[in-house]
Design goal:
Chain A has 15 helices and 19 strands. Chain A has 408 residues and is α/β, with parallel strands linked by helices. In chain A, the strands form six sheets. A seven-stranded mixed β-sheet of chain A has the order 4-19-10-3-9-7-8, sandwiched between helices. In chain A, strands 13-14-16-15 form a four-stranded antiparallel β-sheet. The first copy, chain A, has a two-stranded antiparallel ribbon with strand order 1-2. In chain A, strand 7, helix 6 (128-134) and strand 8 form a beta-alpha-beta unit. In chain A, helix 1 crosses helix 11 (214-232) and helix 9 runs parallel beside helix 11. The longest helix of chain A is centred in the middle third of the chain and has 19 residues, at 214-232. The first copy, chain A, is globular. Chains A, B: This is Phosphonoacetate hydrolase.
Chain lengths: 408, 408
């Protein structure tokens, strides 16, 4: 390739001159970093913030993992890439379907474009659910910690990851699942020095542990050590997050839940409206499928504005928007959200029916995300960013722009 | 008195039939209770919430101690009682003056009215700065932990508080200062059984310790034990707070401060505008006089709306209002606030000039209050409240209404 620039989803990027690592730390509310740095748990980050750039950015709402990871790797909001949750209500078939399949993706990723431009690219995710979406159309290495024992050259662009990393396959519910991502990233950089690497962790720790607590600080100390190793190898590092994280409990310590399907059933009759929780996925033990975002399909003939206004009155609701309002404000694909979008407040989550949520797996007071209260995320680069207008609004999906256009 | 009702500041209250205790826990963000209950640290509160009433209320903005304590004891917002901060800029003299003197109070307290109606009333505060305001015009017992060794029958309505409580005078910077309030309350109830008691603590612990941490849980376990004793003596107990509390730090762990006097000086010239921080008081070691609320006096001739709009653009600002807007929205006395009122976001505080804040006393990452992000407070009653419309908006200054009109 003679060109030194790429144009992906209407944004221009320079090609990397140094190994560039974008890290998406799942559920990394900035206060995790603040409390850990303040108490001496992240010496590398403290130095990186002093010598580099520490910005606060806004993630995509719904503040969930998949929409935000796809935004980061496409440099675009869900209105462009199409992934607006883990779950989608397929109105044609009347069924709820997972959005893990790349067929739902409407835009190319920057990772695929970089590989196409001749750059070596490696992607490591914690859970396998993200891997196929992130790696779509991409030549290079792409695997998950979760299925690190099942990699093949054909499917993942690499063999014997367990041999490379020197660790066993971690449990899907563990801090180790994320540590494996960092450990693999360091080994890949040591052995293959990819031009671009994307590392994406899981928020198992953040769902259980608040900023400044021992459990959280231990995780961030672990992370800090690996990032220091990548930095020492000369990498440009951008650290961002898919979303923040907040306690979601009532004063009695139980989850503070608005059971929205029950609310609509009591108002309109059973199963007339359909409440969709796009946080739902096969791994719900740590949050019980409870987040601060829901979309609602109303029966035909419903006065949508009247329903919106009525729902907005509910205590604990931060914002209730019509489809058009939500599509505009949150940059969502209008054809993949319901007639209403409901966002609950900082301490409140939205459920469907009380009977449909199994909260028996919650062994700590609920912490979750999904709403506007979890939109604030770090956007940290271990380099100064000369020429950058720091007064502009930053998004987590500006990560590659900062890395490639300002930090090299 | 033949009447069984009182009318104070345009609200009607029944006289208490049982000993009634209103507790204002300084800086008690509801999550402190949630995390402590969830982890078994508050067995009394867990029971009280199950058998009584657990509401969430909104405090007065600025979410500071004095305006809210005065609202609770007058049942009215600052537009009625006049106390809108610790500090006031006296435009007549061009000086900043403390608002601790009862001369600033514009409304009678419910405590004074209850005493006038023949009920025995006792007030215990942590810091002495509040005592004179709370006890204004009131016959009965009124003293502070801070000056518990200096009480006189004439000034405080009681002698030998140290002998009664059996504890030494606590340090003004300690959890003991608040424990003394509870211990005194229990002893007063055991020995004198006042009809009405108002207990008000200090937020020394909350400024240092986040919800769910060891330091916070120890405080709430202590409190739970004393409240259990008051409950066992048959008291109606209302637990509320003057304001919440949030971490106020940047990702490097230092306070995230907008130095607003510096900002105005750079724009309008040195000392043309005057920034007032109503959180300022003689006890600033634990927060460095940094909170999320400021008022600003602009030089005459300034286009106020233009200044408002310009300041609203600053990153970290949640709301900037003109005097009239702030007086209406926050129910503040228009003659005691500046031309602008500025409220910063959850993680951000407002300072005057960097050179005027001594942060050397901060021995933990800054936690503070003052803004809309600290407006959510508990309003808990250890009784069911039959007939109460629980969908209405609750304020912390509804505490006596719930206690006297619904819980007896």
């Amino acid at each position: 390739m003679a060109s030194t620039e790429l144009n992906v989803n209407a944004r221009r990027y320079k090609l990397p001159a140094q190994p560039t690592v974008v890290v998406c730390v799942d559920g990394c509310e900035p206060d995790y970093l603040a409390q850990a740095v303040a108490t001496g748990h992240m010496p590398w980050l403290k130095r990186a913030l002093a010598q580099g750039s520490g910005l606060i950015a806004e993630c995509v709402v719904p503040s969930f993992t998949n929409p935000n990871n796809l935004s980061i790797v496409t440099g675009a909001p869900p209105s462009v890439h199409g992934i607006c949750g883990n779950y989608l209500f397929d109105t044609a078939s009347g069924t709820e379907v997972m959005m893990n399949d790349p067929k739902w993706l409407r835009a190319p990723t920057l990772l695929a474009a970089l590989a196409e431009a001749g750059k070596s690219v490696a992607v490591v995710t914690a859970k396998d659910k993200l891997r196929r979406l992130l790696g779509h159309g991409m030549k290079g290495i792409c695997f998950s910690s979760e299925k690190s024992d099942q990699v093949t050259l054909e499917e993942n662009g690499i063999e014997d990851v367990l041999g490379l990393v020197g660790k066993p396959v971690p449990s899907v519910y563990s801090a180790d699942l994320s540590e494996f991502v960092f450990a693999a990233g360091v080994k890949l950089m040591q052995t293959r020095r990819p031009d671009v690497m994307y590392l994406s962790t899981t928020d198992y720790v953040q769902h259980k542990h608040a900023p400044g607590t021992e459990g959280a600080n231990a995780f961030y100390t672990m992370m800090d050590g690996y990032l220091a190793q990548l930095d020492a190898m000369g990498c440009v590092i951008v650290l961002t997050a898919d979303h923040g994280m907040n306690a979601k409990v009532a004063m009695d310590g139980t989850p503070d839940v608005i059971y929205l399907q029950d609310w609509f059933d009591a108002w309109l009759g059973a199963a007339q409206a359909r409440v969709i929780l796009p946080i739902t996925d096969p791994y719900v033990v740590h949050h019980g499928a409870l987040g601060s975002f829901a979309t609602v399909y109303l029966p035909s003939g419903t006065d949508v504005e009247a329903a919106r206004s009525r729902l907005q009155q509910l205590k604990g609701m931060e914002a209730v928007l019509t489809r058009a309002q939500a599509a505009e404000r949150f940059e969502l694909p209008a054809d993949r959200i319901g007639d209403l979008v409901a966002v609950s407040e900082r301490f409140t989550v939205i459920g469907t029916s009380a009977s449909r949520h199994d909260l028996s797996g919650l062994d700590a007071p609920l912490r979750s995300h999904g709403g506007l209260s979890e939109q604030r995320v770090p956007l940290i680069v271990n380099r100064p960013l000369p020429g950058l207008d720091t007064t502009r609004r930053f998004r987590n999906f500006d990560a590659f722009e900062l890395a490639l256009n300002y930090a090299q």
